[in-house]
UniProtKB/TrEMBL annotation:
UniProt entry keywords in alphabetical sequence: Repeat, WD repeat
WD repeat extents: 12-53, 54-95, 139-180, 181-222, 223-266, 267-305
KW Methyltransferase (keyword) present: no
Pfam family, one: WD40
Protein name per its UniProtKB record: Anaphase-promoting complex subunit 4-like WD40 domain-containing protein
InterPro entries: Apc4-like_WD40_dom, SKI8, WD40/YVTN_repeat-like_dom_sf, WD40_PAC1, WD40_repeat_CS, WD40_repeat_dom_sf, WD40_rpt
Domain Anaphase-promoting complex subunit 4-like WD40 per the UniProt entry, residue ranges: 105-147
Domain of life: Eukaryota
CC annotations in GO: nucleus; protein-containing complex
SUPFAM superfamilies, per the entry: WD40 repeat-like
UniProt source species: Circinella minor
Length: 305
């Protein structure tokens, strides 16, 4: 019988404006949110209480992420900066990385925590060193705005998706383009790798979610059900569940069974576009953020985590 995810904690007016991204850290159990009011905040993953504000940006924050150790967070802003935060020291600002204009978009940590990958308006996927703050390499695509990036959990691949719907998958070790994945008719908003390292999932403005086999560079399935732009996708880290969470401008959060290629459940708890979703490390809880300025928690029935 499918697991049911029950709405639990609600934080209304969590930010002063639209909340654009959310990440759930490992070990430190922090939820990091970034908003168009230029603020970044850290919340307790269990209680939903605000732990602290992370002050460093002057313009809208477009993305947040945490490293695998749960010790660092990164936020990217349209002010062309990447901020690295210490989650073990009340969110102290560790480093500010200055990128050239529109080169700091959808920042994602590498699995080893040493680099951050960002999309850019000129079509490059840029890698920045956390230690030095320098841009250490770039993967060139077809000069279309790279809206989002994702690493495979094993660090073998980094993927970037573009405003024209194309997805580019690079082999990190060789820096070579492994695959160009097509199929979306409009811009791709978000990417996530499943924990098997070979399944890449994308959400697009064409209202579709695509599931790709990265090993063979093939489209495996198309998930339909959202009635507007798919803004966020996140694969459940518990590989045994084969689940995906998605969020959309249709104000809905959906849980999918990737094995059955079907919707398990749909939640309508937000009053505006739902920009992002994130699982906890155990895959037993989920959080969503929205243009309605709220954060919503969900927990699997019978979960003790």
């Amino acid at each position: 019988m499918p697991t049911t995810y029950i709405p639990t904690i609600v934080r209304d007016d969590a930010h002063q404006d639209d909340i654009w991204d959310v990440a759930w850290s490992k070990n430190t159990n922090c939820i990091i949110t970034g908003a168009s009011d230029s603020s970044v905040k850290c919340w307790d993953g269990s209680s939903g209480e605000l732990k602290y504000d992370l002050d460093g940006h002057v313009l809208s924050v477009v993305s947040v992420d945490t490293n695998n150790a749960g010790t660092r967070a990164v936020s990217a802003s349209i002010d062309s900066t990447l901020c690295i935060w210490d989650l073990e020291n009340n969110g102290a600002l560790v480093k500010t990385i200055n990128a050239t204009p529109v080169e700091a978009w959808k920042a994602r940590f590498s699995p080893d925590g040493e680099f951050v990958a960002c999309g850019s308006h000129n079509g490059d996927i840029n890698l920045y060193s956390i230690e030095s703050g320098d841009k250490v390499s770039s993967f060139a695509t077809k000069q279309k705005f790279v809206t989002t990036t994702a690493y495979s959990p094993d660090g073998k691949y980094v993927a970037g998706a573009a405003e024209d719907g194309s997805i580019y998958v690079f082999n990190v070790e060789t820096s070579q383009l492994a695959h160009t994945l097509s199929g979306h008719a409009r811009a791709v908003r978000d990417l996530t790798f499943a924990p098997d390292n070979r399944t890449l999932i994308s959400g697009s403005d064409d209202k579709c979610i695509h599931v790709y086999d990265v090993e063979h560079g093939q489209l495996a399935s198309v998930l339909t059900g959202h009635t507007s732009w798919v803004l966020g996708v996140d694969a459940n880290p518990d590989i045994s569940k084969q689940q995906l969470a998605s969020s959309s401008a249709d104000r809905k959060v959906k849980i999918w069974d990737l094995g059955m290629r079907s919707v398990l459940e749909t939640h309508e708890v937000h009053s505006e576009e739902v920009w992002s979703v994130a699982w906890n490390p155990e895959g037993t809880k989920l959080v969503s953020v929205s243009e309605d300025k709220s954060i919503k928690w969900f927990a699997s029935s019978g979960s003790s985590v």
